[in-house]
Amino acid sequence: MMHESFDQAKDRPDNINEILNGLDRYNPETTGIFQDYIASQCEERTYDCYANLALLKLYQFNPHLTREETITNILVKALTVFPGPDFSLCLHLLPPHILHPASSASSLPAAGDAPLSEAVQKLTTLNTLLEGANYKGFWTTLDSDDLYADLTADVSGFEELMRVRIAVTVGQSCREVERAVLEGWLQLKGADFEKFISDICGWGLDAARGPPKGGMVVIPVNKENEAKSSVVRENVSFDRKFFLHFGWEERMIVGADDSCRILARGKESLRATGVEVGGSERAREEFVVLFVSWKYYLLARTGIRSEHEME
Amino acid sequence: MSSYERALQGVVAQRMMDDASEQDEEAMVQDYQEQVNYDDGMDDLEPTTSISQMPDMQANLMAAATPLEYQATLETKLNSYDNYCNLFHWILNSDGPVDFDIPSPQWAWEVIDEFIYQFESFCRYRNRVARTDPSSEDAQLLRESPHTWGCYSVLNVLYSLIQRSKISEQLLAMKQGVDQKTAMGQVGGEYGSKLIYHTLGYFSMIGLLRVHCLLGDFSLALKTLDDIELNKRSMFARVMPAHFTTYYYVGFCYMMMRRYADAIRMFSHILVYVSRTKNFQKNAQYDSMAKKNDQMLALVAICVSFNPTKLDDIIHTALREKYGDQLNRLQRGGPESLPLFEELFRSACPKFISPTPPDFDNPAINIDPVDHHTSIFMQEVKSNMFSPTVKSYLKLYTTMDLKKLAGFLEVQPEQLRQWLLVNKQRNRQVRWSEGGLLQGDVINSNELDYAMAGDLIHISEAKVGRRLVDWYLRNLSRAY
């Protein structure tokens, strides 16, 4: 199981960490630091969504500080970790009119918005293709307009990062893929393709199989593509679901060993076998109902305990 | 310089505000000085500022927890902002902690709640006026006061209350087993040891959760609750509206981060709690929660459509009663379900706001933030809309040929391959297990799992063992 925490990034410098955890994250003077940080993420091929969102928030609060190429760089970096929520989380922090040019086209938007709006539209198109697993469409669209090359130019190794990311999602879903299909998804052919799947992915190639002249890429078994059947056992803790159901929660505590302690509203208590009962006549009556039903429950749950054991 | 003062300077100080806001600040300072002067004579006698010496503040404190009338004019709203400024300025910047016994923790919650509510409704009103009626008198008034209810001021109040009260430190101590009184006394310091600061600081954290969510910053919203443990022992659980609000916003933020299992867990917790305790709630309070209750049910409907889960019986029944037909349509997916997703989302989402004043000269670019966030959410819905179709077929087989299935569905094999990849990816979700709300493990959230080997789809299902507890609970309630 992969453990994640959205607010952490393994390559984050200490000074960024300090800003993010303090009130300086709202200080417009840190804008420059965050801008340098995203620039270094682009160069070094690292990624820190939580810090980039902090920069977008600074832009959100101080629109006059906005730098368009920084926004597009953040979005392009977010593409490289699809299908995570990162791209959407970035969009949520952008000024609404950037995403809705149709309504603002008639009246002229503030100067300089149009190019950004167009860039965001284009990147959103790419994101939609990626989230829809239309990888072939992604590559075709990327090549269809020079603007894409401009937008992704700052992000070092963008195409390779995308290939790796696509390969990761394929590796989770497939055990074998036709070579031709995977070539389309990765937009690689011939020796480049073979090198990529063996060196980067560690996958095999079985030339003898697949459709005529094709060949089959063989992906080793992993936890995701194994798709193993399993039986899920019911796991219910006493004190939550079971007793909450009857509003008994406050009065009954069940130990890990199924011993049962009943705390009634009153103070006096009466001891029973492994059971503490307290309170008035009414509480005792309630206890009897409770205790009997508790035994029932154990019977139903384990099916093996005898009544004797339970008393 | 205390960390609070640094924060004040760092966050709101002049360097980040333009001239107009400096005037605002000056006005605030002037107001404050007037009050101080008013008290000057007495200050010589008594070192602490006492509430009895400030009749205005007494009224102000009470007003702060009282909702504005629905029909309140813009002028009233602007004045109300000034009142809050004065009040918080007095609480935070008096000579030492103020001496005021709060009636109950509920009062502190109501102050923070009403403060944020007025901020939210002011921002929405301002945006609406700029969009629809930019030449009105109100628009003119709003143009002239761009810094009223500014988001920096609102955040500043909340963060200052948190810092003054040392509530984070107190909560940390309480996490380590110290009780509330001891934590207040030992860790809270001069301010945090007083109940007014302790409670205001605490509810400010929940206020931040809400403000960040309203601004569309869902990860930061969840991060602000790092110090608060979501359990029944927490203070918010003692104030029903706070309890309710906390779970609504946490659940909503999880949903926007595509952590549907966690979102369902949050909504379920509070919906079950409300249904169990509704007999004990005061009627007026319950009425105001009924709407939010329905909203959360709608969000549960959205989340279970993405992430089919067995729900608690109570919620399941309520969902069937309230949204039975809609739920079926959502779960069927496809393009026909899109308008319904949108309708439910709009009816149940928070009233998003934009942090900056609108552009009164270009009405058309002032888009309603709700439209903005809805459209982004709908992109995610669209990416997923064929998952239910795919799942419904896969359930029937253990192996299936991709081309054959594509034939059944009347789509190209390539298209089906994409749907299968999408569905598989969406089944992988981060789910919380321990620690802060943003932490979690990547798990496979669906009972149905599959893998493709060329054109052959291998399907497996996680079977659920006998569900004895439900059987037992049903029979037991019948026996009563």
UniProtKB/TrEMBL annotation, chain A:
Which Pfam families does its entry note? CSN8_PSD8_EIF3K
Indicate the transmembrane segments per the record.
none
Q: Does the keyword Coiled coil apply?
A: no
Give the GO cellular component terms, alphabetically. Answer: eukaryotic 43S preinitiation complex; eukaryotic 48S preinitiation complex; eukaryotic translation initiation factor 3 complex
Annotated GO molecular function terms are: ribosome binding; RNA binding; translation initiation factor activity
GO process terms (BP): formation of cytoplasmic translation initiation complex; regulation of translational initiation
Query: What subcellular locations does the record give?
Result: Cytoplasm
Keyword Ion transport included in the entry's annotation: no
Name the UniProt key words of this record, in alphabetical order.
Cytoplasm, Initiation factor, Protein biosynthesis
Q: Which residues form the PCI domain?
A: 47-224
Query: Coiled coil where?
Result: none
Q: Which InterPro entries match?
A: ARM-type_fold (IPR016024), CSN8_PSD8_EIF3K (IPR033464), eIF3k (IPR009374), PCI_dom (IPR000717), Transl_init_fac_sub12_N_euk (IPR016020), WH-like_DNA-bd_sf (IPR036388), WH_DNA-bd_sf (IPR036390)
> Which superkingdom, per the lineage?
Eukaryota
User: Subunit structure, per the record?
Assistant: Component of the eukaryotic translation initiation factor 3 (eIF-3) complex.
Concerning its family, UniProt says: Belongs to the eIF-3 subunit K family.
Q: What does this protein do?
A: Component of the eukaryotic translation initiation factor 3 (eIF-3) complex, which is involved in protein synthesis of a specialized repertoire of mRNAs and, together with other initiation factors, stimulates binding of mRNA and methionyl-tRNAi to the 40S ribosome. The eIF-3 complex specifically targets and initiates translation of a subset of mRNAs involved in cell proliferation.
Q: What protein am I looking at? A: Eukaryotic translation initiation factor 3 subunit K
The organism encoding this protein is Gomphillus americanus
From TrEMBL, chain B:
Report the residue ranges that make up the PCI domain in this protein. 262-448
Tree of life domain: Eukaryota
The record, for InterPro entries, names:
eIF3l (IPR019382), PCI_dom (IPR000717)
Q: Name one GO molecular function term.
A: translation initiation factor activity
Q: Does the keyword Magnesium apply?
A: no
Q: Which UniProt keywords apply?
A: Cytoplasm, Initiation factor, Protein biosynthesis
Q: PROSITE patterns in the record, alphabetically?
A: PCI
Q: Signal peptide: which range, if any?
A: none
Q: Give GO terms for biological process.
A: formation of cytoplasmic translation initiation complex
Cellular compartments per GO CC: eukaryotic 43S preinitiation complex; eukaryotic 48S preinitiation complex; eukaryotic translation initiation factor 3 complex
User: Its principal location?
Assistant: cytoplasm
Q: Which cellular compartments is it found in?
A: Cytoplasm
What job does this protein perform? Component of the eukaryotic translation initiation factor 3 (eIF-3) complex, which is involved in protein synthesis of a specialized repertoire of mRNAs and, together with other initiation factors, stimulates binding of mRNA and methionyl-tRNAi to the 40S ribosome. The eIF-3 complex specifically targets and initiates translation of a subset of mRNAs involved in cell proliferation.
User: What's the family?
Assistant: Belongs to the eIF-3 subunit L family.
Q: Give the record's subunit note.
A: Component of the eukaryotic translation initiation factor 3 (eIF-3) complex.
Name it: Eukaryotic translation initiation factor 3 subunit L
Which taxonomic lineage is given here? Answer: Eukaryota, Fungi, Dikarya, Ascomycota, Pezizomycotina
